[in-house]
Write a structure and sequence with these properties.
A hairpin with a 3-residue loop joins strand 4 (160-167) and strand 5. With 199 residues, the protein is α+β, with helices and mostly antiparallel strands. The protein is 39% helix and 24% strand. The termini are far apart. The protein contains 6 helices and 6 strands. It is elongated. Strands 1-2-3 form a 3-stranded antiparallel beta sheet. The chain has a 3-stranded antiparallel beta sheet with strand order 4-5-6, covered by helices on one side.
């Protein structure tokens, strides 16, 4: 504490208490951060008197975001999605993602948010590659929603022999094949036909 003085009254008679707080970044995990609280015995001022906690929190969040960006870009690379395709989709200058991946430049807050969207909804890359055409974007949305739905359903327990999604240029069809031995399906119709343009 020796060289620290109260910023309110100038007294060196400060007591420091440390505590830990969890700092989180959506999709980017969390980290335990040691924070400091000061109390001045002379004037009674108390808190983060030197803005250390705020600076430490900002640094921790920036580090979590930086690591998150690297993780997202590595996942795309493993899934054979090129950085160039992502840059085109996000309309970023060429080599920006490479700089973010190697941590030679810090990603912008907007860039981090856009990469989070792409991580959660990777089919948005195809939407961007096709000029954000509305009909196609609706078809891709439905197709991916139905595939997710299919993964969550326990079809064997619901009287279905099989189920699937069929897509064409303009249509997405969700189908259910029922058993003929008296099992009752959870849907009245065996076929649910969704026209992407009609959404």
């Amino acid at each position: 504490m020796s060289n620290l003085v109260c910023p309110v009254c100038g007294s060196p008679n400060l007591t420091q208490h440390s505590f830990f707080e969890t700092i989180s970044e959506s999709l980017g995990g969390h980290v335990q951060l040691e924070k400091k609280n000061y109390i001045c015995a002379e004037c009674g001022s108390e808190g983060d008197l030197f803005s250390e906690n705020e600076e430490a929190a900002e640094f921790a969040i920036a580090k979590l975001r930086e690591d998150l960006v690297v993780s997202i870009l590595e996942d795309f690379t493993k899934n054979n999605v090129s950085l160039a395709a992502i840059e085109r989709a996000l309309e970023l200058p060429q080599r920006t993602l490479t700089k973010w991946k190697t941590k030679s430049s810090n990603p912008s807050a907007a860039g981090v948010s856009l990469l989070k969207f792409l991580k959660i909804f990777p089919w948005l890359l195809e939407v961007a590659e096709n000029g954000f055409e509305y009909g196609l974007s609706q078809k891709l949305y439905l197709e991916n929603a139905l595939k997710t739905f299919m993964q969550k359903m326990a079809f064997e327990e619901s009287g279905f022999r099989s189920a699937g999604v069929i897509t064409t240029a303009n249509t997405t069809v969700l189908y259910f094949q029922t058993q003929k031995n008296g099992a009752t399906p959870i849907f009245a119709d065996e076929r649910v036909h969704i026209e992407a343009r009609g959404v």
